[in-house]
Amino acid sequence: MIADRVVISAGLWTKGLLRGLGVDGSMEAGKGYSITSPGCGVAPRHAMKLIESNIACTPFEGGLRISGGFELGPVDGEPRARPLRRIVRHAARYLQDWRPGRNQLLLAGFRPATPDSLPIIGPVPGAGGVFTSSGHGTLGLTLAPATADALVPAVLHGTTQTGLAPFSVRRFARSRR
């Protein structure tokens, strides 16, 4: 398949894709954890962010997902017991009428994070028609619509929004020889 323009937005794997284009993606995996369970008791009916504990609760049909954590370390998908226990313990202070049941889905996922905590958004220097949008950390899905909207002028018309300057790919680009 041939394309005139491409947006690389592959989470943590963006780092490897950009490396071949002369960009040191400088992204690390921030491992986040979640537990999803039908549980026992009364679960929240809407999504909540428990700010003090930095925990999110999201109701699903037949269950509640509790998620949190941002752990730098090895890139493996194995959920560790200690962070999962921490999430449940902290959520329990707020969810006094709900506890996870035995039927649980335990997950560990990767959140691409940059050293300056800013995403990498915009055209890739020296690679005409290639753009990127990655490194949003824990806010990738939340910021995806706004990031896509900000990239439209660059991708379709070759004009870059001045508001995207702090997120420029150039801050990680290596000089090409």
Note down, in words, how this protein is organized.
It is a single chain. The protein has 177 residues and is of the alpha+beta class. It has helices spanning 14-19, 81-92, 140-157, and strands spanning 6-8, 28-37, 40-41, 48-50, 55-60, 63-72, 98-99, 105-113, 120-123, 130-134. It has three helices and ten strands. It has a five-stranded antiparallel β-sheet with strand order 4-5-6-2-8, covered by helices on one side. The chain has a three-stranded mixed β-sheet with strand order 1-10-9. A two-stranded antiparallel sheet has the order 3-7. A hairpin with a 4-residue loop joins β4 and β5. The longest helix has 18 residues, at 140-157. The radius of gyration is 19 Å and the shape is elongated.
Give a brief description.
Helices cover 20% and strands 31% of the residues. It has 3 helices and 10 strands, in the order βαβββββαββββα. The chain is elongated.
Q: What are the salient characteristics of this protein?
A:
single chain, 177 residues, alpha+beta, 20% helix, 31% strand, elongated
DSSP strand content? 25-35%
- Can you count the beta strands? 10
SSE topology string: EHEEEEEHEEEEH
* Multimerization state: single chain
Helical content stands at 10-25%
Largest sheet: 5 strands, antiparallel
What is the CA-CA span between the terminal residues?
Answer: 29 Å
Described by the principal axes of the CA atoms, the overall outline is elongated
Q: Give the averaged pLDDT, no decimals.
A: 87
**Spatial strand arrangement across the major sheet:** 4-5-6-2-8
As a whole number of angstroms, the C-alpha radius of gyration is 19 Å
The count of helical stretches stands at 3
Q: Which class of secondary structure composition applies to the elements?
A: alpha+beta
The low-confidence runs, each spanning 5 or more residues with pLDDT under 50, are none
